[in-house]
Amino acid sequence: MTTRRKLIAPLALPVIFFGAAILAGTVLLHMQFCLNETSISWINSLFTATSAVCVTGLAVVDTGSAFNLTGQVILLLLIQIGGLGIMSFTSLAFYLLNKKVSLTDRMTVGQDLLHDSSFHLGSFLIAILTATLAIEGVGAVSLYLADPQAFPPFSALFHSVSAFCNAGFSLNSDSLVQFGGNWPVNIIFMLLIILGGIGFAVMVEGRRLFMLYVSGRKIEARPTYQFVIVVQTTLFLIVLGWVYIYFSEFVNYREYLPFHEALLTSLFQSVTLRTAGFNTLDISAMTNASLVFMIFLMFIGGAPGSCAGGIKVTTFRVLHAFVMSQVNGTQQVIIGRFAIDKETLNRALSLVFFSLVMIFISVLLLDFTEGGDLPHNQVRGQFLEIMFEVFSAFGTVGLTTGLTGKLTAAGKVIVILLMFVGRLGPLLLLGSIQSLRKRLLYKYAEEKLPIG
Question: Per residue in 228-248, pLDDT tens?
Fold first, then answer.
């Protein structure tokens, strides 16, 4: 009984934390003192609160017009709580498996997360809070200085927090479309999104390397394995998405846009679509080729220990290395100068499998709720919109082709559950696998089975 209580309690902590924040946000956002003249339904309040706490960004009401200053402040706090919460829970996943952390566990977590055997839980949480507030503060000031009229003090702060937490909420009805050619604003947003999506451990490592370079100790500035993998994969996906979106959108399709603006909007969309949910292009007007590729990038997401969703860039690298090992016939799965251990590979495969199962079920259910009684020729094109919506919700991205505002009540409930599961599912899944796994003292007889 004690063992079961020890297992269930830590895994329930993120669910309780996020669930309580969502319920509190739902009640507050439904109150009239948070709204302008019009009222919103309970389901829309629940949807908005879930999207904010899960830092997704999907919206069924216009944030800037539906909520007054009080409502926007509450929404900002929900985003901040969600961003800080997921960074803390993800970075401290090992701690959630034990109510009390032994000295051995403390040293293990320290080496894994901060490469410091003197790791201290309280100090780590304070460091997360301090770094988050500092980055968001600098981002808010930068946005205000870049365009004081478009980003007055509160708007600058709101968008800075939303960008760093990868939430994608905007006080503008068109998100950031009006800033499509504004280089300073775009660069500030992209930097905030990238910092929020690479993970706290990588940010700490980057700061350490920078300080060593500045102080002239370049020999000591050796990046860790995790840092190299996360940064390399993140840059690769950004450049890949940048090039692809430019060719799929602006070559022989939107040639009337200035070349520099086409480059900037392509780059911004590549950065934001893996997790943040802001857009400088009208998503509903993009080509099918772009939307399908965007689904792929949304599924990958950002880095572990960050505000980003998806299966994470490290999982993508492990899967890529696994496929290459099968093609090349090598016995080990190799990334860079190291081989990946079997446990990590199994976790990656399990995470991808269960994620795809959740996505498939969600698409199936939404096909029923959103025009399931109509023939295909009357809802042509809706399947791609549903697919895009599901991947966006699961990856806590927040981009939409326009389907979010048209969802039925049942469809909204499905997307709400998907955002919640997509935010916490990977964390709970990996924790459950690690906690429930038991080592067998025997092996079964092996047999071959035809595949393919």
Answer: 999 999 999 999 999 999 999
Q: What is the DSSP string of 207-234?
A: HHHHHHHHTT-GGG----HHHHHHHHHH
Please, what is the angle between helix 409-436 and helix 382-394, to 10°? Answer: 40
User: Cα(258)–Cα(198) distance, rounded to whole angstroms?
Assistant: 31
Structure tokens at 250: 């602006």
Q: What are phi and psi of 443, to 5 degrees?
A: -130, 150
Contact call for residues 64 and 36 (beta carbons, < 8 A) = no
175 dihedral zone (left: phi>0; alpha: psi -120 to 50; beta) = left
Kindly report the pTM of this predicted structure: 0.88
Confidence of residue 5 (pLDDT cuts 50, 70, 90): very low
Q: How far apart are CA 56 and CA 419, in angstroms?
A: 7
CB 155 within 8 A of CB 259: no
Token duo for residue 80: 């901040």
Question: Once rounded to an integer, what is the mean pLDDT over residues 388-402?
Answer: 95
Give dist(CA 76, CA 140) in Å, integer: 13
